Amino acid sequence: MEEVTIKGLTFVPYLKEEEILKQVKRVASEIRRDLEPGDAPIFLCVLNGAFVFAADVFREVDVPESEITFIRFKSYEGTQSTGVVKQVMGLTESLEGRTVIIIEDIVDTGVTAQQLRATLKEQNPKSVKMATLLFKPQSLTTGQVPEYVGFEIPSKFIIGYGLDLDGQARGLRDIWVLKDKEK
Ligand code: IMP
Ligand code: MG
């Protein structure tokens, strides 16, 4: 089988670009369907991992009044969540009264989502919803179920389409999964 090796770890194919883009289109149409007349949504891309999904889903939603902005968090070291989420870059615009759509690459424990929603609430937005390309329901420890989900996946470590291993592999067009150790 085809494989890629990043930092000494071997990954095998998991989701092809074509399947990913199909789910991006579906998620975008759900977001568009739920907008209220006159809504000028602000998309909030959670860096770094979500930048590829955000670019694709934002263009696919295709509402001319929509805006996009960025916030940055870091929680992973290697293939494990540290459980501590650091905000590395903050928000500059006001979200008061805005329809906010958080764009995540993946919801794992949900700790990032929980912290983010708590931070946003202080600004009194009209509504806050979260769209994630990937969701690992079995890893969720927080009750932070995202409103829009591209794929539900098991609790395995993946890379590509924005997702990284210590900063590498984000540019892969497909998504790859860490190969199980051979016994
Ligand atoms: P959470 O706070 O545990 O939900 O973690 C969310 C963040 O952890 C994501 O936005 C990713 O940056 C990172 N993450 C979680 N699972 C993976 C994975 O399988 N591959 C790469 N990054 C991951
Ligand atoms: Mg992330």
From TrEMBL:
The entry's protein name is Hypoxanthine phosphoribosyltransferase
Source organism per entry reads Sodaliphilus pleomorphus
**Which GO terms fall under biological process for this protein?**
GMP salvage; guanine salvage; hypoxanthine metabolic process; IMP salvage
Provide the Gene Ontology terms for cellular component: cytosol
| Residue ranges of every copy of the Phosphoribosyltransferase domain listed in the record | 15-164
A GO molecular function term, named singly, is:
magnesium ion binding
Matching entries from InterPro entries are given as: HGPRT (IPR050408), PRTase-like (IPR029057), PRTase_dom (IPR000836)
Lineage, top-rank taxon, reads Bacteria
User: Ribosomal protein as a keyword?
Assistant: no
Catalysed reaction(s) here are: IMP + diphosphate = hypoxanthine + 5-phospho-alpha-D-ribose 1-diphosphate; GMP + diphosphate = guanine + 5-phospho-alpha-D-ribose 1-diphosphate
Keyword 4Fe-4S listed? The answer is: no
Q: Which UniProt keywords apply?
A: Glycosyltransferase, Transferase
